[in-house]
């Protein structure tokens, strides 16, 4: 009759010896979380080729590069990009929660950190897109131009009326 010790998954160390797989320790969990939240963590990080988001496999790198290649994001594509960003944020939170509270091994934690940093890198790229709706951008520019013109006219007319009243005195 065994004590269940052999039911625990085994891994092989680099020396070829068998060792028992253990869950991530509290201090290791803290280190993993610090790596995820470190400022500049995405510098030099790669966007993953593919990632499973909400149960669906997405070619993330291809998607981000396809969107970034364009000068602007057309109105029809904007909803697709916004939805992708929402899904990536949701997936990031789920993976972060696994690091914080999940029953994971150190290796699984490392994989989660790499995935989260890759998601952050993709989100940064998608957040920094140029103008997304040319019509909206043009309308905002025209409105700003009209306000500047009206302000100029009011100042100019105000100065003229003020000058004519002084001359009449």
How would you describe this structure in keywords?
single chain; two-stranded antiparallel sheet; mainly alpha; elongated; 5 helices; disordered C terminus; 169 residues; disordered N terminus
Number of discrete helical segments: 5
First-residue to last-residue Cα separation: 115 Å
Which shape, going by the Cα principal axes?
elongated
SSE order, one letter for each helix or strand: EEHEEHHHH
What fraction strand?
Answer: 5-15%
SS elements, strand count: 4
Physical arrangement of strands within the biggest beta sheet = 1-2
Category from helices, strands and their pairing: mainly alpha
Radius of gyration using CA atoms only: 28 Å
Could you write a compact summary of the structure shown?
By secondary structure, the protein is mostly helical. The chain contains five helices and four strands.
């Amino acid at each position: 009759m065994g004590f269940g010790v052999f039911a625990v998954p085994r891994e092989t160390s680099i020396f070829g010896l068998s060792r028992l797989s253990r869950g991530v320790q509290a201090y290791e969990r803290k280190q993993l979380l610090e790596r995820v939240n470190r400022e500049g963590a995405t510098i030099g990080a790669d966007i993953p080729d593919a990632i499973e988001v909400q149960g669906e496999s997405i070619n993330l790198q291809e998607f981000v590069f396809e969107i970034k290649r364009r000068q602007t994001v057309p109105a029809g594509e904007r909803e697709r990009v916004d939805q992708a960003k929402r899904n990536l944020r949701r997936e990031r939170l789920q993976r972060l929660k696994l690091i914080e509270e999940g029953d994971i091994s150190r290796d699984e934690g490392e994989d989660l950190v790499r995935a989260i940093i890759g998601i952050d890198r993709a989100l940064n790229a998608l957040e920094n897109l140029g103008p997304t709706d040319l019509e909206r951008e043009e309308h905002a520019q025209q409105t700003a131009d009209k306000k500047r013109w009206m302000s100029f006219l009011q100042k100019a007319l105000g100065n003229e009326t003020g000058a004519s009243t002084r001359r009449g005195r």
